Every structure is written in C-alpha cells, then in structure tokens.
Amino acid sequence: MNCVLNRKYLNNIVEQDHRFIKWRIQNELGFKSFESARRTLSGIEVVHMLRKNQMVRPGISMFKSFCKLAVCR
User: Fold this and answer.
1) Residue 72 class from Cβ within 10 Å (0-12 exposed, 13-18 middle, 19+ buried)?
2) Is the whole-model pTM more than 0.90?
3) Distance between CA atoms of 14 and 8, rounded to whole angstroms?
4) Are the C-beta atoms of residues 57 and 65 closer than 8 Å to each other?
5) Distance from C-alpha of 40 to C-alpha of 18, rounded to nearest angstrom
6) DSSP alpha helices (H): ranges in the chain?
7) How far, in Å, CA of 73 to CA of 42, rounded?
8) How many structural domains comprise the chain?
9) Which superkingdom (predicted)?
C-alpha cells in the first residue's frame, strides 16, 4: 500500500521541478521554430540541474561542467 501512495504523489515532484521552466518561458511570446524551443528548454534544464548539484562532478566547478555540456549540445 505504501508503494501505491508514493507513486500517487510522484507527479507532484515532477510538476514542482518543471515549475521553474514554465515560469521562465511565460514571459516569452513563443518560439518561432521547434529547434529554437528545443535548444532553449534544454539549456534551461541543464542550468537548473547544475544549480541543484545533480550534474556537478567532484573537483570540477559548476562553470566548467556547464561549458562541457554546452559544447556537447
């Protein structure tokens, strides 16, 4: 029964994580192409994940991690 209850509230965690992205793109009127939307949203998600220390490796600064990810995309 606990497993069912935990999954019930999993959607709330996902929505809270994407709240930042929704707030960030609300000020824009919209994207003119799918490619620009994909690049902008992926960049926002990368920065958000770096802020939450989800992608930072020990011994590497947040800026260096961002630069490595920005070059790969």
Assistant:
1) exposed
2) no
3) 12
4) yes
5) 14
6) 2-8, 10-26, 34-51, 62-72
7) 9
8) 1
9) Bacteria
Percent of the chain whose pLDDT exceeds 90 = 0
**CA gap 73, 69 in Å, rounded:** 6
């990368």: which residue's tokens?
Answer: 46
Interior/surface letters 12-41, b for 16+ CB within 10 angstroms, e for the rest: eeeeeeeeeeeeeeeeeeeeeeeeeeeeee
- Residue showing tokens 């919209």: 30
Q: How far apart are CA 16 and CA 21, in angstroms?
A: 10
Domain range holding 46? 2-72
